[in-house]
Write a structure and sequence with these properties.
With 278 residues, the chain is mainly alpha-helical. The protein has one domain. It is 71% helix and 0% strand.
Length: 278
Amino acid sequence: MINIVIYCSQGLTNLMHECIIVGIKIIGAKNMFIFLRLLLAHFIGDFPLQSNSIYKLKYRGLKGIVPHSVIIAGSLILFSWPYLKLPGLWGFICVVTIAHLLQDWMKMVWKKGQKENFCQYLLDQFLHIGVIATVFLTGLKNLKPPEQAVGKLASFYNTDKIIVCLILLIVATYNGNYMIETFKYTFLKTRHNYTLFESWYGMFERAMIVLIFLYGGVFLMIIPFVFCLRFPVYRVALKNKLDLSEEFVSFLEISLSGTIALAAGIILYLIEPSGSFS
């Protein structure tokens, strides 16, 4: 099991890094600006802004899929705010939103109420990202950062480093929870109903590791201690009779959570020194 986890982590990290570098070379780093903002908008709309009630409602068809798609559209509009006077941008947002709606609807029809497996989940996200990537086939790819915008908000929006970091944080945290659940269900045939504390602790743990990679250097030595924090937390929970299962400190749980966090962190670490993003 240890070798499998290590192998998967290394393979996933290497594959994603090579894809990113090749993509940057083909497209050009300067043309990544609007794509990164739209990608962040997608992840925010598809994860933090997709509540459990909306997710469950999606199984009932368009009653849940339409509100979710509206949220996706709102997120895309929000992260395209400097360019809302461009008719072409509105058209692209409509295309992405409709594609998202249709893809989610077809997915629910195909699943027929069954739980999504790991491979289906990855395919679903790659297809969503693929639709957004069609921006490179349009003139929108040449959009420049809004020079006339001033203030902290504009500085935040114009900094690729912040945008990429936020994307990887969402991938490691909210997305990480779902990846762990579907991985266990698909390959181990097990299910675990995570408590609210377990879910949020896992997200906090993975976020800490990704941020450590952002700073790099001697800070990387802190990573093992982040993983070890689970054990005193578990003991405190037992002492106070809190609802926390033994799986919280199991090797499998720590390995899966760690693999996702390390993969996201390493990608961030590898991208930054390359000078691909400013």
